[in-house]
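Re: that chain you flagged

S.,

Sorry for the slow reply, it's been a week of failed gels. I finally had a moment to sit down with the sequence you sent. For the record, here it is as I used it:
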Amino acid sequence: MSTESEASPPSASKRFLRGLLETAAIILVAILISTALKTWVVRSFYIPSGSMMETLQIDDRVLVNQLAPRFGPANRGDIIVFDDPDHWLSPEEVSEYEPNPILEFVGLAPADGGQQLIKRVIGVGGDTVECCDAQGRILVNGEPIDETYLEDDIAPSEVDFKVTVPEGHYWVMGDNRSNSADSRYHVDTQPYVPEDNVVGTVFLINWPFKHFSWMSTPKAVFADVPDSEGITGS
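Prediction finished late last night. Pasting the structure tokens below so you have them in one place:
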């Protein structure tokens, strides 16, 4: 009489190999997902200077929404990370960047770091931006703005200017106006940031933890600003 034979259990070496392959597959998928997120969705940047104080402190780390530029232009008041439009950064500043392969791998530092800047959008394409009215406020399309994100002792600008932003570009300024080599200091070359240079919009300060906070557009600051066609916009 024949009897059913039971399948013999896999050997210890086979179980180890199968576990190793499963672990490798999980790690590979995690790397692919992380790479996709870093490439298309979210990237992390650190703040190397005081040009955005007190909003952003030196050595803060921020998360940037890279999808935002794909769904439309940035708004007035947004804080954006962008590729250097025309040698705003000196060779000395670029050379100071020290890449960290580990942080780059896990997404805590950009692989092409040292070539980007971070500023706030003050004017969009078609806007006329100028400094300043009798109260020292910047005007956008003739409307003075009260910049609530500036410290009380920070003048909106110590440099006089009046520009009209080309379509598809931005006029940007740092929140620490006396210590920010922003659009104001490049009017003789390329003071505007092309839309194609925008990496993304800052939406979170994620480190150090004591600075953890969500970043939102200060719409109230620009609520009364008419756009270049005279229609109220934000």
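What I noticed first: The longest strand covers residues 198-207.

Talk soon,
D.
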